[in-house]
Design goal:
- Helix content is 48%, strand content 16%.
- The chain has 352 residues and is of the alpha+beta class.
- A 5-stranded antiparallel β-sheet has the order 4-3-5-6-13, with no helix packed on it.
- It starts with a strand and ends with a strand.
Length: 352
């Protein structure tokens, strides 16, 4: 007789009855269930549910339980500090940026009141603000990710775009917000999408602040800042992008802290590299990791090292294969295991 776990509840048997449930629309290896009736008996799967569940054990009485909040992860980090998961390259490049005279002041000057207002109104006017009354499932994913990382949830906007992307903008004196493009929502499972939200929360947790917003303006290319070329030399831009690439490695770790499954984060990176909704079920994470190891080997020679640096110099993000290798290695590190050992379990099931 099989043993199953639904959000921390151990159930013996093969059937549950679900009353007035709401399916949280992400799944790990199986698609979400589609049930039109208000009450149905279905086989247990890895799909995650909200609502009341009646578990029927063979040879015993029916026991009702309530899944109060069903989360993607099993633990939260109550005392998490940014330096607990910050990537060494992030630490190193942050020190370099801070040592550049006037950089912080230049950034704040470029991101003045008018620019900030343009950015804010641009997103409010062309996106959908997620809330408990608007795309509530996505709102719940954000709240859960923020709780796991021990910080306040920012606003979340969904924006129509064929380019899969998500970014964070932190405007001084205003609540930060995260923007996710619709094509990314379509590309990812809900668990993967929550990992993306956790990645963006990592920027806020690490206080990447004005440099992140400054870098996002440069990489998005959505706003024209007069005199930008004269104020910022090419070398400064390269240093800013070098820092941003390092910051992305840190935030991939934040994504893993929420997903608590490296395959979820690696799957996101794989899909961003070459995925589509129609190909998603054919992608192979192990093959992608082998591809990452092949790239590392090919770029280890002097010529390969030069080509790799030329390839990444003007990129805002590290190459997906390198990010996959990094998160795979960190998921097996003593630092990550130590963090998990400090975490507090989520009490997600209560009897009624």
């Amino acid at each position: 007789m099989a043993m199953h776990t639904v959000c921390g509840l151990r159930i013996t048997g093969t059937t549950v009855t679900i009353n007035r449930f709401q399916t949280l629309p992400y799944a790990s290896s199986t698609p979400p269930l589609s049930i039109s009736a208000s009450m149905a008996s279905v086989p247990l799967s890895s799909t995650v549910f909200f609502g009341s569940i009646t578990a029927k054990n063979r040879g015993s009485k029916t026991q009702r339980v309530r899944v109060s909040v069903c989360r993607a992860a099993s633990v939260v980090f109550r005392d998490l500090d940014a330096d607990d998961f910050r990537h060494p390259l992030d630490k190193q490049n942050t020190l370099i940026l801070r040592a550049i005279p006037g950089l912080n002041e230049i950034g704040k000057a470029l991101l003045g009141t008018v620019t900030e207002q343009v950015m804010l109104l641009e997103n409010i006017g062309t996106s959908v603000l997620v809330s408990k009354n608007q795309l509530s499932d996505l709102h719940q994913l954000m709240l859960e990710a923020a709780e796991i990382l021990n910080l306040d949830a920012p606003d979340l906007y969904i924006r129509q775009s064929p380019v899969p992307n998500a970014y964070t903008l932190a405007i001084s004196g205003k609540k930060p917000f995260v923007v996710v493009h619709t094509s990314l929502v379509e590309l990812l499972t809900r668990k993967e999408l929550q990992a993306v939200l956790a990645h963006e929360l990592g920027h806020l947790k690490c206080d990447h602040g004005v440099w992140l917003t400054f870098a996002n303006i440069l990489t998005l290319g959505a706003y024209s800042l007069p005199g930008l070329g004269g104020l910022i030399a090419q070398q400064l831009e390269e240093q800013l992008f070098r820092w941003l690439r390092a910051a992305e490695l840190t935030c991939d770790r934040a994504a893993l802290l929420v997903a608590q499954d490296p395959k979820v984060v690696i799957s996101v990176l794989m899909k961003l590299a070459g995925g589509s909704p129609s190909l998603a079920d054919q992608l192979n994470i192990d093959a992608f990791l082998e591809q990452a190891r092949s790239y590392e080997k090919a770029s280890s020679s002097p010529v390969g090292w030069y080509i790799r640096n030329a390839q990444t110099r003007q990129l805002s993000h590290p190459l997906p294969v390198l990010r996959a290798r990094e998160i795979d290695e960190w998921s097996r590190s003593k630092d990550y295991i130590s963090l998990l050992s400090r975490a507090a379990p989520i009490n997600s099931v209560q009897k009624i």
